[in-house]
């Protein structure tokens, strides 16, 4: 049996030992999953770590260019784990790097057990391979972790955006859209999309758009409001604007936006009374 194969078998027999040593020396005060006292969560954590070692030891089993891809299911397992999602990325990466010291210990134990098996050059090569491979796995993990964290953040932002366009059904195929807070370009786009889709889905004929909760209406907001009203017309939905401050009217005039045909009111109650709905 060649030296590399002997070292591989030596490591393979000790994958659970690696996990137990890792957990024994784990700083239990770290943030996130590593501080858990729940036996079930600890068991899962150890199983995840053991899976890492089962894959890692194959570095010394004639690994090829596909070797790093073998970590993909382990990486995805950790990324999808809700406990790891609550753990800061630097803390997770720190635990990856701590594995190299465990392998250094086992390499030293192997040398003591088989003192004449490895040359000095082989020892240095094996240790360098351990360090470089852990670095490669960390880069692979970090890249996918960040990509999926950004995807989750985007999904949350989209959900928040949708919830920020609450079209409330009233009577006689009418509804009110109370807009509260600042409007940026992204929210304005969501407002347009959601107002169209919800009016169609709810079979709305007239939409009251209340701006009394909007602190600032700038050039972009005025343009988006005008576009929303005009687009709603195309699907057969008329609109009323309420909460229109003098500053909004002034901004619209400066932009050359023609709101002359738009039903505007100072309060939502005035708009509703005009349409005899309330």
Describe, in short, the structure shown.
61% of the residues lie in helices and 9% in strands.
Structural features, described:
Helix content is 61%, strand content 9%. With 278 residues, the chain is α/β, with parallel strands linked by helices. Helix 9 links the parallel strand 3 and strand 4. It starts with a helix and ends with a helix. The mean pLDDT is 85.
Protein topology:
Elements: H1 3-12, H2 15-24, H3 39-56, H4 72-80, H5 82-85, H6 89-113, H7 120-163, E1 168-169, E2 174-180, H8 185-201, E3 206-213, H9 219-234, E4 238-242, H10 246-255, E5 263-264, H11 268-274
Parallel strand pairs: 2-3, 3-4, 4-5
Antiparallel strand pairs: 1-2
Helix pairs in contact: 2-3, 4-7, 6-7, 8-9
The main sheet orders its strands as 1-2-3-4-5
The share of residues in helices is: 55-70%
Average pLDDT for all residues: 85
Structural class: alpha/beta
**Helix and strand run:** HHHHHHHEEHEHEHEH
Examine the coordinates and then state which fold CATH places here, giving the name of the CATH topology of the largest domain: Globin-like
Search tags:
alpha/beta; 5-stranded mixed beta sheet; Transcription Regulator spoIIAA; Globin-like; 11 helices; 5 strands; 2 domains; rod-shaped; 278 residues; single chain
């Amino acid at each position: 049996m060649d030296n590399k194969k002997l070292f591989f078998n030596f490591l393979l027999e000790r994958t659970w030992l690696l996990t137990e040593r890792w957990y024994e020396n784990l700083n239990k005060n770290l943030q996130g999953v590593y501080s858990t006292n729940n036996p079930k969560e600890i068991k899962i954590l150890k199983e995840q770590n053991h899976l890492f070692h089962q894959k890692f030891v194959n570095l010394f089993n004639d690994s090829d260019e596909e070797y790093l891809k073998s970590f993909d299911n382990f990486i995805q397992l950790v990324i999808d784990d809700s406990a790891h999602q609550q753990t800061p990325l630097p803390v997770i990466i720190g635990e990856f790097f701590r594995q190299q010291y465990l392998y250094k210990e086992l390499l030293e134990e192997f040398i003591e057990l088989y003192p004449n098996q490895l040359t000095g050059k082989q020892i240095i090569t094996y240790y360098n391979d351990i360090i470089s491979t852990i670095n490669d796995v960390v880069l692979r993990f970090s890249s996918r972790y960040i990509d999926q964290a950004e995807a989750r953040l985007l999904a949350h932002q989209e959900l928040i955006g949708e919830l920020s366009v609450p079209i409330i059904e009233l009577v006689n195929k009418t509804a009110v859209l109370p807009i509260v807070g600042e409007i940026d370009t992204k929210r304005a786009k969501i407002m347009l999309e959601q107002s169209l889709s919800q009016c169609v889905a709810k079979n709305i004929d007239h939409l009251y758009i209340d701006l009394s909760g909007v602190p600032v209406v700038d050039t972009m907001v005025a343009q988006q409001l005008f576009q929303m009203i005009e687009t709603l017309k195309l699907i057969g939905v008329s609109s009323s604007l309420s909460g229109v401050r003098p500053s909004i009217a002034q901004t619209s005039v400066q932009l050359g936006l023609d709101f002359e045909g738009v039903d505007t009111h100072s309060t939502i109650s005035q708009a509703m009374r005009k349409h005899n709905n309330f």
